[in-house]
Amino acid sequence: MKQQKNANLNMLFVIDPLESLVPGHDTSLAVMEEADRRDHSVWWCTLHDLRLARKKPEATLRRIRYAKKKWEEVEKRDLPLEKMNIIFMRKDPPFNIDYVMATSILSYTNKKRTIILNDPDALRTFNEKLGIFEFTEYIPDTIVTKCKGTLASFLKKHKKIVLKPLELNSGHGIFVLEHGDKNRGSLLEMMTDGEQKYIMAQRYLPEIKHGDKRVIILDGEVIGAVNRIAPPHDHRSNLHTGATPRKIKLTADNMEMCQDIAKRLKTMGIYFAGLDLIGNYITEINVTSPTGIVEIEKLYGVQLQRNVVDFFEKISGSGAHRLARRA
């Protein structure tokens, strides 16, 4: 392991398998490359590598270096997680029991030695879909239920709604349903698994034709934003499903809302997140592995990964700079 001196830190990224991440798009890779450029030690592992022994979390870790536009493995070691200065939890959903157990393991890490972002307790309790209910003054009419009758009544009220599974990401499993659609019964039965599974329904926002804004927040502040325009053949505006990134200037109302949410999220232990805005409404808050940094760099020439690593360096200094959950 590299000798620790000055700002040289051990940074662990808990991610999906490295080879599955997409260069030129993935935020995790952008932050890892920036950390490596500054000569920090970059380590990675998957949830499969995490374990708990004698109340001490440890993992099989791989240290890598970025050379000739590719990652090369330097070493592979079994290490206690407290050997890391920073752990950046970036595992993509699904938000399932495996994910929950991983955050529980991370929670046992010695917080006097290691800083984890986002706070694993917050990740465990702040569902990316349900989290918007902490900010009801900013959200469209939204319900969470497994009852088909309740969903049918919600559809009758709004005429057009968006249905979302609670555990997925990147637009997977999202449907738009209109009043009078003969597929209604079958779709509601499928999505709720015969009323055994909770789903979310939101009022359809026609402002989506102008795009779905992803706003990146860090340490209680807005640091960047990108608009995402859905392709003509799809109602989803996720980059993973083919949406086109575009420049966007947030309105004063948008900025005020996002700044308020960012500061409140910080008190919950959520320091890095992606807010999704349609019109003047928040529709989702992405806290597990929000993307958008690379697209913002391509559009504006601003490298937000530098902000992230700057933040890591700041909070890894003296005890006074360490993060603490606010009461």
Could you explain how this protein is built, in words?
By secondary structure, the protein is α+β, with helices and mostly antiparallel strands. Helices cover 25% and strands 29% of the residues. The chain has 8 helices and 16 strands. Strands 1, 2, 3, 4, 5, 6 and 7 form a 7-stranded mixed β-sheet that branches. A 5-stranded antiparallel β-sheet has the order 14-13-12-15-16. The protein has a 4-stranded antiparallel β-sheet with strand order 8-11-9-10, covered by helices on one side. Helix 1 crosses helix 8. The N terminus and C terminus are likely disordered.
Q: Please bin the fraction of helical residues.
A: 25-40%
Outline type: globular
Can you give the mean pLDDT? 92
Query: What does the largest sheet look like?
Result: 7 strands, mixed
CATH topology group of the largest domain: Rossmann fold
What Rg, in angstroms, do the CA atoms define?
20 Å
- The poorly predicted ranges are 2-6, 318-327
The helix/strand class is alpha+beta
What is the CATH class name of the largest domain? Alpha Beta
Secondary structure tally, helices: 8
User: What is the CATH architecture annotation of the largest domain?
Assistant: 3-Layer(aba) Sandwich
Domain module count: 3
Quick structural gist:
Helices cover 25% and strands 29% of the residues. It is of the alpha+beta class and 327 residues long.
Top keywords for this entry?
single chain; disordered N terminus; 25% helix; 327 residues; 16 strands; D-amino Acid Aminotransferase, Chain A, domain 1; Dna Ligase, domain 1; 7-stranded mixed β-sheet; 3 domains; alpha+beta; disordered C terminus; 5-stranded antiparallel β-sheet; globular
